[in-house]
Predict the 3D structure of the following.
Amino acid sequence: MATGFIILFGLTMLYLAATSRIVAHIRILIIQGFLLFLICCCGMEHHNWLSFAFLTVETLIVKSIVIPWFLFKVTKKTHSNRDVAANIPHFYCLVVATLILLGGFLASNYYFSSMKMISPIYFGVSVATIIISLWLITIKHKIISNVIEFITMENGIFLLSLSVSKEMPMLVNMGVLLDVFIAVYILGLFVNEINKEFNDLEVSHLSDLKDYEYND
Amino acid sequence: MISTILIFPIIACVLVMLVKKKAFGTLMVNAYAIVHFICTLLLAAGIWENTVPYFAVDSTNIIFLIVLSLIFLMVAIYNTGYVRHLEGSDKKLSHYSFMILVFVLSMTGTLLSTDLAISWILIEGTTLSSAYLIYFNKTKHSIEAAWKYVFICSIGIALAFVGIILLNISSGAINTMNFEQLYQHATEFDLMWLKLAFVFMLFGFGAKMGLAPAHFWLPDAHSESPSPISALLSATLLNSAFLVIVRVFKIMELANCTNYARLMLLVMGFLSLFVTAVFVYHIKNYKRMLAYSSIENMGILAIGMALGGAAFYAVVLHLIGHSLAKASFFLTSGNVLELFESKRTKSVSGLISADSKTGWLWVASFLAICAFPTSLLFISEFIMIKTMILDKHYILCGLFVLLLTIILYGIGRVVIKMAFGELSEDKAKVVEKNINKISILMYIPQIILLILVFTMGIYIPDCLNEIIKIAAGTF
């Protein structure tokens, strides 16, 4: 059962790579949050109730309600609907993302099947998610897209922490929550400020600081 | 004592937010600096208890704490003079003081923590608090710098977290992030996962430390933030991230993966030197130049760690020397900026005739950072070169000296032109208008720091030398 959800989680990354509407990206975040919750439910035997309650709050409330709500608000305020001007056409984005995901599946099957400490499929998909997110960050032009991909990367890391078949120390979980929560809050605030200052959310505006030609 | 260092700023923050007066905020920053300094001295002397849950003073972190405390005290003194002429409402300046308190608290916490997870959380805390400080001037450039800083460091820290998860995988049945316990069980770790974990953690914390190739945020952030903050960022924040790398390196050492870890550090160290040597020639902004110099010095620290043996002692000396000299350099650059109202190197010349004190401090800071004898950095770099020769790494040694010479020439050219060139008439008018902004408090910290750097090159007090030796022994 968990394997099915993990594969679905991997597929959401393909959807993210193939679409340009920001609203669709935020919806993907909601789906990912919910899938992570279901994956946590499937692996319940590894957790005590406190840890499970914590994970529920983290996935259901923070990842699939609070963060998307905040991002929807930011999108509305900044009127950013699409990220059309990516460096690479969406079709090629999809192809590359698929190849990375395939690589993740293959790696998990061939190399890590002998490892007892981790579940291979979790490992493969989470690593593929992290790589796809990092790659998408480099090719997208809107700042808000970068924030969304940053969150999908955090989701990938979260899945990786679930892949460890023993329990991570509680402290670490709290750290992740703090990280996601505050990072999104701060990044969101900056998105607003940048929008106010530059009247736009293109990454290319943020390239004034460089070594060769510099204006005070 | 540790609880005082950690709880005082929280109370101070609450008070600053309640009172919301510029003078009160500055007072609280100064009060914390003094409390921090006294507590650190007492902790170093071993007079008071030095352990609370999750935080402790040990032989490794005490030297980092002393450096942080001293730099913070000096920056606080400078800051008192600096904020007098800072424009902004009481509310904005209270936020500024508030964030300085949070920033120093997070750095102190990072240094003192005995747990990798807590160090990681607090490093994230430093990013968040310093992002506001970098954005303080609220210009287009400062928002760009702050955005890059938050984004690159957040990704770096997220990757460091992947490293922590991989470390947890490699540690097998041992379910802890406590450094002491990790050291104890290091021999039982699975080496493949441990090596992978080290790569992620080195890259993640290395991003925060300013090691190439994840250094891109550093020149922007250092050049756009107010000068006292640049000094804090360069002289203390980078050290905090370095301490975490030192601790992780020790795990690698105990798990018999030293060669692998050394190779990684060596590559990143030389890459940092190379990047600085390439970029330092084209820089049009003197604060960016200082930031690149920080990247270079972090590279030297990484190379020192990679060399091992006697170089560990040199690493500690270099850390102290760089922090003192660079803080002085950045604070003086604040004076230059106040006087000339420009960060362009072309716009500044004849600094000594404009304001002789600032001019000579600028030259002396340069001499300190370029390892001119008797600067402490001369001793540290000399020991590193000696270690390389004794270990028969002749090519590395040649490359090291070559890159340092290129960087020295690049920085020296700009500094000398700025200090000794002609002062044009219109610039003289600007300087005359602004000279009143520089109070005595904006000279004293640099003088103290430079005296310390040049004195420690000849004489290090026995008690301090003992602390340095013990710290180097634990690396």
